[in-house]
Amino acid sequence: MNDSLIPESLDARKIFARDAVVQGVWPVSRMQRLNGLLADDSGEVEVDLRFHVDEQHRRLITGRVRTQVNVTCQRCLAPMPLPLDEALQMAVVASEAIGLRLPEEIDPWIAGDEPLPLPQLLEEQLILALPLVSRHDEGLCRPAVESVGPEPGANGVGESGQGKPGKGNPFAVLASLKSGDRK
Ligand SMILES: [Zn+2]
Fold it and tell me: What pTM did the predictor assign?
């Protein structure tokens, strides 16, 4: 894997004509819109892309973006790692109207001949790839923090709690009421 930084922008007039390959990385910390949706800004995006013009004269970007980010589990609110591995198939088009005529599997990126902001384009794709809600797999959540008073025995009175009859089992009272009804 090539671990040099990908270019911040590409010359759209040249890169496709050259049938170029761009490989490298980009830090998640430099994708602010993306990391605003994450638990932290750690991680690096691995990029492996090809820029070419197809038979229909479309300027295509194909390849893969991979990364592992930390998102917040919506059940226990602890961070959890989320691997992303996206196959990319995009066409750089001059207008939205042209973009609408693309086959469904090709995503449009609307731009003219101005420099192509590659990290920004990848950031968009990664944001779209994030699940709406992230949760740990069943049983992997951080245990809930108990907030129900002191530990049993902490004040010298154990669970047997002599002298505090009402505090034992609130359902015991209920149970005796019910059995009383039956008679
Ligand atoms: Zn969780």
Answer: 0.75
